[in-house]
Amino acid sequence: MEEYVETLKCKYNYNEEMISFLSKLLPALIQYYGEENKEKILTALLNCEIHEQQEYENPKEYLNKYFMNEKEWDLPFLAGAFYHNEISVHGDTISAKPIIYLKTKYLMGCRKFDFGNDDSISILVHEICHLVKGYGKVKLENGKIVDSTGLSREYYEYDSETETLKEIGTDNLGLEEALNSYDEAQVMTIITGIPHECGGYKGMSKVASKLMEDRNLASAIKKSQFNDSVDWIDYLGKEKAEKLSLNFDSWCKSLYFPLEDMFDDEKVKQKHLIMNRAISNINEFITEHFERQIINEYPQGSQEIILKRKREMERQQMELNPQIANFDQVLENAQNNQVK
């Protein structure tokens, strides 16, 4: 592993802080995702630069230079880091080149990435978890270009005249963000030895952790995330999987705000309603899923266990209220920064 890390250092000119971090991260990723995915993890990190924004660097200019193209970029406004997989089409050949970009410049100034801060590290771990589950999975399917990252799938059409890609649809983005945030927390716990909660999708991660209590479902999800299979759909059933996915999509989308909508109280209120409805539907789904399991496994005395499970879910619903309050704080901070 030391030789591999040294290769990363030479290839990307990583500093000692990055190398120290990767030396701790790699064993944790392999332990969590399993030896069967070791080569995929190592290959992904070997072929993706983790780039820290420099003080006077324009991210859009850097990305165009890195990918050797000229395009407009719609970059995440509040994110401290992001993973991007740039798809290229050359004749009949489809390829993709990934990057993880660490932002250091914000509205209030420049802030160097802090490798000594667990919250900062957690943000980077989140994006690396996306990378290892998405590397090398771009393909042509039914005339469409499909880019899969874990359970999520993004669909594109290619215009040969303009040589441009157009996104035409997505599946399972919200569910994968929730699961990826759960992964982030588990990997961070392995690295630090301390139970960790993710920051960005804290509520979604908590709910995803309930899903992963079903070990058979957790196994099916992990296989699907790395092998681009539908094991998880087969396990739940198509209708139930679609219901779960759609509600996670609604929840996830409610967390994203165009800047102009942050000042519209009515739109903020609608976002809250959508979020609460999605959370309620997902909790109901999980409760019913485990009720069926409990009845099958414990036909005698199952009602007492079911009641206990419902109380746990009700308590979890109450615990998610601080996330909504935190959502308000994020909006307020963004509004204040924009005004300044």
The rounded Rg comes to: 21 Å
Q: Given the helix and strand composition, which structural class is it?
A: alpha+beta
Q: Strand order, biggest sheet?
A: 6-7-8-9
> Which overall shape is indicated by the principal axes computed on the Cα atoms?
globular
* Number of strand segments: 9
Give your account of this protein's structure:
- The protein is of the alpha+beta class and about 350 residues long.
- It has a domain at about 1-215.
- It is built from 13 helices and 9 strands.
- The protein has a 4-stranded antiparallel sheet.
- Strand 4 (about 105) and strand 5 form a beta hairpin.
- Helix 10 runs antiparallel to helix 11 (about 265-295).
- The radius of gyration is 21 Å and the shape is globular.
Question: What are its keywords?
Answer:
340 residues, globular, four-stranded antiparallel sheet, alpha+beta, three-stranded mixed sheet, disordered C terminus
How would you summarize what this structure contains?
The chain is an alpha+beta fold. It has a domain of 214 residues.
Topology:
Layout: H1 2-12, H2 16-33, H3 38-46, E1 49-52, H4 59-67, E2 81-90, E3 93-102, E4 105-106, E5 109-110, H5 118-134, E6 139-141, E7 144-149, E8 152-159, E9 164-171, H6 173-192, H7 202-211, H8 215-227, H9 231-236, H10 238-253, H11 265-297, H12 302-319, H13 321-339
Parallel strand pairs: 1-3
Antiparallel strand pairs: 2-3, 4-5, 6-7, 7-8, 8-9
